[in-house]
Automatic annotation (TrEMBL):
Originating species: Paenibacillus mucilaginosus (strain KNP414)
Family to which the UniProt record says this protein belongs: Belongs to the 'GDSL' lipolytic enzyme family.
Entry-linked InterPro entries: Galactose-bd-like_sf (IPR008979), RhgT-like (IPR037459), SGNH_hydro (IPR013830), SGNH_hydro_sf (IPR036514), SLH_dom (IPR001119)
Single GO term (MF): hydrolase activity
Protein name: Lipolytic protein G-D-S-L family
Domain SGNH hydrolase-type esterase: residue ranges: 239-397
Domain SLH: 508-540
Length: 703
């Protein structure tokens, strides 16, 4: 027996609630299947549905049949209840147990589903879903429920309501605010939603078993496209995963090409805003509202560059709020969700194939190939772009070309290959200070020294495509700096990236390329007249002091008393100790328990790709001062400072360490000379240490 339905209902109630659909259409003055217009919205159709027995002017009355139940969705009718939502994969909802008592439509669920160990990502409380035929575009969504917000979860077309209700920021540095959130209070739920399909679903889901929830009213009001205000610049939005993301200093040296891409544009012609975040895919960038926020923020004529594919490979595609997609789901997201929604807002999409991962432990001579072997996402994206006339940058193919151009040693160096003493930054698992906590060379994430070539590739391809007649590419290329366009045309980027030295981009000289390029970019270290850095040459005491004083804005007098000559490790340790105490009055946050705190699932900064399962790797040396075997060799007048610098973690043993391992050596080698490359390593560490952990790591010059 249907819940809430009583056979003793009065004839009057039966008449008002169960009126045949055709008579309702006639009463509203519309043809069957045609939704009534809201006369208050000139020239635009508003979709208004009333689920009560009391007729409301301008509303479509959704009627319940005592024998057949609720009206089921058909394209001809243009609305109705469905048994599966439009989410991917479809979520089961119920129609046969929906009933009505004249105040709305109700459902109660005797049990819920939750996957063991994945209860937060894969659950279903069932409930009901009402589908409305509505073309792609933006809509103000209003839902009035029969049940209180505490008992009811309302959503639209498979989106994750728990994320939609939260404010905050889309990026790690908190520079890109979340502008559009849902609101749920009492029995009302509102959200502004950009639809890509020709229909949308309003989902009503109970929060408690055996607790009735229901729907009284739905109003969808179409919203106009947002025109760019006079005198404002067009915006280029970038949307992607961790390989596009803009990083903060606490994550150094990790970088994404979106972090440096904005530097290639003429700031007087365009704004560039990066909405990318680690762990994102076509699926969860949609469900959490990230795409939606861009589309409501952007104006007609703005550009949206989209790169997804890495997290879409995750084998959780059948979980409700997983990241992964099958090939069919990946294609559907692009074809039916993203592209129509972007275009409906008058914005212009550009697809970018995901860069290829690399084999972290590749041996010398290894030839890199496209890493997408099982789910051929780049091929799918290219095919859709061809069929729909969408501009596409094939970063996937170009990334493989670049890896093979610079070779295995140099490629491994610019991916997240970390050894002890390179950075005080951290990942999900804790500090990088003693090496990578996951004890591997990460072949997905990379350093700024690779972010710049990727940004260069994207810009070059846009200029190239524009020259071949692609109007969208040409328009974006026109927003680039003039010298960047010239560099892209002629293949000469030395003026754009003067920090790239000839002897540190390939082979063994590239081992500390990331640190060297940053110090060259900051003007702290320098190349010779031939454009070489000479990484294996010994640095002098004076040269190191000058570089450190400039880098940390310290008076060189702080370092008085060190005679010039070849820099040794014991002298370097003492100088670093002087710099630390001159700069800091308290320990930087990198050194505190903060750096051993795990970022857990659900945290906005959590990236599942960075989670090795390890927990809380700490900043300080793994080998104590007492365990070092050669401290007796340290000059007595330097011993106190060297010990303090070591225990502060300002430098560590260089003997016995290796990238891809979390290990410290037991020999400090106090008398060993310091090369220019090793000096760059130490200087980079101090440079990161002096910056706030939450500051965006997008600095190209000193203050």
């Amino acid at each position: 027996m249907r819940r809430f339905l009583k056979l003793s209902l009065s004839a009057l109630l039966l008449t008002s609630v169960f009126t045949p659909l055709q008579s309702r259409s006639e009463a509203a003055g519309t043809e069957p299947g045609q939704l009534p217009l809201d006369s208050s919205v000139q020239g635009e159709r508003a979709y208004k549905f009333n689920f009560t027995s009391q007729a409301k002017e301008g509303y479509r009355s959704v009627t319940y049949d005592v024998y057949d139940g609720v009206p089921l969705y058909t394209p001809a009718a243009g609305y109705g209840f469905v048994g599966q939502t439009s989410a991917m994969p479809p979520r089961e909802v119920h129609t046969s147990t929906i009933t009505s008592d004249g105040t709305g439509f109700y459902i109660s669920e005797p049990s819920f589903y939750a996957e063991p160990k994945y209860e937060k990502d894969n659950y279903n409380n069932y409930g009901m879903a009402f589908r409305i035929q509505a073309p792609p575009g933006a809509y103000s969504v209003y839902v009035k429920t029969t049940s209180d917000a505490a008992d009811t979860t309302v959503s639209v077309s498979g989106m994750q309501t728990s994320r939609l209700l939260k404010g905050g920021f889309w990026d790690a540095a908190k520079l890109v605010p979340i502008k559009h959130t849902a609101a749920a209070a009492s029995k009302e739920w509102t959200y502004t939603y950009v639809n890509g399909r020709d229909y949308l679903d309003i989902e009503i889901e109970p929060n408690k078993v055996n607790t009735p929830v229901g729907i009284e009213e739905i109003v969808l009001k179409p919203l106009p496209k947002q025109l760019r205000a006079a005198g404002t610049l067009p915006t280029v939005f970038t949307l992607g995963d961790s390989t596009v993301k803009s990083y903060t200093f606490d994550e150094a040296p990790m970088s994404g090409w979106g972090q440096v891409f904005d530097n290639l544009f003429n700031r007087e012609k365009a704004k560039v805003v990066n909405y990318s975040m680690g762990g994102r895919s076509f699926k969860n960038a949609y469900t959490e509202g990230r795409l939606n926020d861009i589309l409501l923020t952007g104006s007609v004529g703005d550009y949206l560059l989209i790169q997804f594919g890495h997290n879409d490979e995750s084998a959780d595609e059948f979980r409700r709020y997983g990241r992964g997609s099958t090939e069919a789901m990946y294609e559907t997201y692009i074809r039916e969700v993203y592209l129509p929604a972007v275009r409906a807002r008058g914005m212009i999409p550009v697809l970018i194939t995901p860069l290829s991962r690399v084999k972290g432990d590749a041996a010398p001579g290894h030839i890199y190939t496209n890493s997408f072997k099982t789910r051929l996402f780049p091929d799918i994206m290219k095919r859709i772009a061809r069929e729909q006339g969408v501009t596409l940058v094939d970063l996937n193919a170009e990334s493989v070309k670049y890896y093979n151009e610079i070779g295995v040693e140099a490629t491994t160096a610019v991916f997240m290959s970390i050894e002890a003493g390179e950075t005080p930054g951290k990942t999900n698992d804790g500090s990088y200070a003693n090496g990578h906590p996951s004890k591997k060379i990460d072949g997905t994430h990379y350093k700024e020294a690779l972010a710049k070539p990727f940004a260069r590739i994207v810009a070059t391809e846009l200029v190239k495509l524009g020259g071949e007649g692609d109007r969208t590419a040409a328009a974006i290329a026109s927003l680039l700096r003039g010298d960047v366009r010239d560099a892209a045309r002629y293949g000469s980027w030395s003026a754009i990236f003067p920090e790239m030295a000839k002897d540190t981009t390939t082979g063994g000289g590239a081992y500390y390329r990331n640190q060297i390029e940053k110090l060259l970019q900051l003007g702290v270290l320098h190349k010779d007249d031939r454009g070489n850095f000479r990484p294996d040459e010994t640095i002098t005491v004076d040269a190191f002091i000058r570089s450190l004083a400039k880098l940390m804005e310290l008076d060189p007098a702080v370092f008085a008393g060190y005679p010039n000559g070849k820099l040794t490790r014991e002298v370097m340790g003492a100088i670093l100790d002087d710099a630390y105490h001159a700069k800091f009055t308290s320990k930087p946050k990198y050194m505190t328990d903060y750096n051993g705190t795990t970022v857990v699932p659900g945290d906005p900064a959590y990236d599942p790709n960075l989670d090795s399962g390890a927990r809380g790797a700490m900043y300080y040396p793994l080998v104590s001062w007492q365990q070092l075997t050669d401290t007796a060799q340290i000059a007595p007048h330097l011993a106190v400072k060297v010990k303090d610098a070591y225990e502060l973690g300002l430098f560590r043993s260089e003997k016995g360490i290796a990238r891809g391992q979390m290990v410290n050596g037991t020999e400090l080698e106090p008398k060993a000379v310091v090369t220019r490359a090793k000096a760059a390593k130490a200087l980079y560490f101090m440079w990161v240490l002096e910056h706030e952990v939450s500051q965006e790591n997008d600095l190209s010059s000193l203050k």
